[in-house]
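TA notes. Do not distribute before section.
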Amino acid sequence: MKKLNGIKLNHRKNTENSATVEFPLPPRVKIPMSMNMGAPCQPTVKVGDEVKVGQKIGDTDVPFSVPVHSGVSGKVTAISDYQTAGGAVCKAVEIETDGLQTISEEVMPPVITDKESFLKAVRESGSCGLGGAGFPTHIKLNPKGKIDTLVINAAECEPYITADYREMVENADDIICGIRLIMKQLDIGRCKLAIEANKPEAIKNFTEMTQKDSTIDIVTLPSSYPQGAEKVIIYNTTGRIVMEGQLPADTGVIVLNVSTCAFIYRYTCDGMPLVTRRLTVDGNAVGEPKNVHAIIGTPFREILEFCKTDMDSIVKLIGGGPMMGMSIPDMDMPVVKTSNALLAVKTYDERKTSSCIRCGRCVRVCPMGLMPADIDRAYRIRNIDELKELKVMLCMNCGSCTYVCPANRKLAETNQLAKALIPRK
């Protein structure tokens, strides 16, 4: 089967052999009420309240959202306004830790008897997509149609990031148990555990673990970018095409990040909600790159200092990978549920943009077969009909077109602006 287009990157997996390090308990945390796709939560605690580890501190009646929990015990010192890296404003609960890490009485393994109770448990866990997108997991696991294939995304194709790889190395049993749990509760007959070829240890380990299980296939994918994009990984593992306007579930597939899968299993065992994150800390300003396991709400500044970062030299701080990550405007912003990497760089080349030379490189690398240069032209004249004809809504913002453009045009950024022009149904 022909694989979709993409680009070859220097993966720079500097921390792939760095075992996860526990970050010390911070003196205070700031926990935003919006850390995933969907509606923000409202605080369920007030200033002066004592909270415990695992206690719910934010929730909403809106279905497309997930609750927020505390990863520390201590006292609520403020309910403040918080601006996310994407510009949205929500409330944040600030807690001064007491050093005791007392576990809340709310923390207990959920009782799961059927699909409905399983989905309720997943929502109560606070789970969302840990690959960075933050889609509420209980929504993803409850599609309208029949699902016959579960795809576990273990590609981790962005440079630098090794957080998912360490999950595979350190918690392989949790991943396999999570796969079997989800397949059982959702009555899914087959799973494709998709791993890039640059992770041979994980491929070998999972192949041995599943050799007697005919329902789980270990799929080795070429090491190319954006191999982990949802539509790409579906096609490259199943041959199915997610058409414009469709969801993966419309093709009978659910895609779940490998770390999300492992977390769901652990939650069903101990009842501890999503209050911590493993993130890769790297970049040429970082003295000791690490995979750090930190409590959600921990300031990025403290994590950078923990990794011996030259703080004065940082010219750009990126949350996520260099291709699809987002610039962090303030080092005191906290770790959130979707944090999987923190890149601190002391050199950044803002290349000068010139006119398009019509070389076609952007077309050749686009996994969706789009024509970014034509989209760029249609956007500049605000031709909405032409943007629709050019299928701009299929753009996944992987950034491959921008990466290969010899004129240094910000094509992926223009695609996102163009998508905003098209009215949504």
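Switch to the second chain here.
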Amino acid sequence: MSKLIHIGYGNVVNVEKIISIVSPDAAPIKRLVQHAKENGLAIDATQGRKTKAVIVMENQQVVLSALLPETIMGRAQTEDGEIGET
């Protein structure tokens, strides 16, 4: 069974499909987000708020979240410190 994590404002993602969770401040990440928007691969889950985390998924989609990367990472970790289900 897939583990879903809350990424803010009622939105969830499948933790097993996450490649990385990064801050949107760096220029390469800004280019990645712009490229994803141009190709229809960006999912904006910020509900109009400032983007604080960019979640890169396995299927090349990019999810924008208004939560900090540290917050999302904490929610993704299981009790034993591993990511996802074992």
